[in-house]
Amino acid sequence: MKRSHIALAVTAVALAFLALVLLLRDPHGDAPVRGPDAGEVDHKPADPTAQPSNGIDSGGVAPEGPGPTWDEIAQELARTRGASRPAELAPGACKEDSHCSDADGLLRCDAAAGTCKEPEICVADEDCLGARVCQRGTCLDEIPGCRARDCFPGHCDHGFGECEYNPCKSDKDCAGTRHCNLELGGECQDCLADGDCADGKLCKQGQCQRSDHCVGDGECPGDVDVCDRVSGKCVSPACKPDSNEPNNKPDTATPLAAGSPVAGELCPDTDESDYYVLDVTKGEGFVVSVSSDRNHAFLEIRVFNRDKEDIGRSGDWEHQGYMEAVVPRAATDGPYYVRVKFTQGIPTPYVIQWIPVSDGFCHDDPFEPNDKLEAAVEVTDGRAWDMKLCGRDDDWFVHEIKSGQEVEVRVEQRESSPMPVIELFDDRELRRISRDDSGDPKKSLVFKGTHVGNFFVRVSQDDPDAHSDYAIHFVPR
């Protein structure tokens, strides 16, 4: 079933439910059954004697009986999350942080000025005011063409202003005049043959270059010469230790003050890693950015907690000259460590900085907004990683099913984030047929289709201060 058809079907179901609320309201005015959290609806199984086992409701097929009342369903459809801007405030005006960022992003309220303020380092477009966009960690005026969120699951090529999708299947998946190299497993490149290049240039490793212009170390003679991708010349690397040395191990890490950029340099063979230590308090979020001369080298950064566990990473694999690692909320007090590592290229100067975010932050995942039933989304390839629940958030999904078919829904906790709750609903009466609110980091529920149609999944959490990272997977059985 196409996404557009599913969206129309979901909308029709939602509207039908809302209309029937008025027609089928319980004449006795019975109040819906409330759960342990004030104001939350608890859809009980039809059998009042049924007891959940290990936090999981029994079932897999919709139980016989009336299920939730229409009043309860109406409340379910109207359930909303997050703060909203008061009507009296103009765009960009604020009295508190929640007026600036619906998704708990990095925008903050400058209480003295009464206006929203952009962060020193942005991570996504939602961290910027109005139509401004986040590029290389800086909020800029909107640029022509695509934006990052327009291209999921691909990326926006800002040179052409078009979306690009890797792995590609044809040139149509590549931006502008780029070509799809199927021999490399579907990688978009500037050229595949010399005929794709103008001005007498040659196609070398997917790039149009002059005949005397190197693009890789393999074109350089000797064992020590490497290719400077900026100048296109073979050079012998020369490097002097920077003023932060020795900082090649966590025990000798350089202290890095928040908001204060520090210059460093990585040397091949002799200085492949630099460590920095950050003073972070439990509950804070933080962003680490590294900028360098693009095309000189491959760099990567990793973030470690005080137990030396890897909790965040980033790599400049597309030679953008910029990368950032994001930790939405620190699970413990510091110290936290950042490693900048040289992986390939020539001696590389860089600048590193970080900013803390009080109370942490949480960005929308690419499927938002899907926090209501009528906005449920389909996971086209059956699996979605890096999903997020920000505060009191719901994520709704819809999945097509055939009569007699069984589909297993798996939700897996990511990192050490709080455990989300998973629920399954049928599409005819929107009755909840199963629920797992256990503490198991890997949850699994099975839906058995009784007709050709769809079923719905809600992943949720009720802690307003919690940020959950998870993956969801639909597995036919």
Secondary structure layout:
Elements: H1 3-23, H2 70-78, E1 108-110, E2 115-117, E3 133-135, E4 138-140, E5 155-157, E6 162-164, E7 179-181, E8 187-189, E9 202-204, E10 207-209, E11 226-228, E12 233-235, E13 254-255, E14 262-266, E15 273-278, E16 285-292, E17 297-304, E18 310-315, E19 322-327, E20 336-345, E21 348-357, E22 383-390, E23 394-401, E24 406-413, E25 421-426, E26 432-436, E27 442-448, E28 453-460, E29 467-476
Parallel strand pairs: 13-15
Antiparallel strand pairs: 1-2, 3-4, 5-6, 7-8, 9-10, 11-12, 14-21, 15-20, 16-19, 16-21, 17-18, 17-20, 22-29, 23-28, 24-27, 24-29, 25-26, 25-28
Helix pairs in contact: 1-2
CATH architecture descriptor text of the largest domain: Sandwich
Radius of gyration: 26 Å
Count of discrete structural domains: 3
Question: Taking all residues together, what is the mean pLDDT?
Answer: 74
Strand order of the largest sheet: 13-15-20-17-18
* Beta-strand percent range: 25-35%
Q: In DSSP terms, counting alpha (H) and pi (I) runs of 4 or more, how many helices?
A: 2
Count of extended strands: 29
Distance between the termini: 19 Å
Unreliable residue stretches: 1-71, 73-84
Would you state the CATH class of the largest domain? Mainly Beta
Helix content: under 10%
Q: Which of globular, elongated, flat, extended, rod-shaped describes the shape?
A: globular
CATH topology of the largest domain: Jelly Rolls
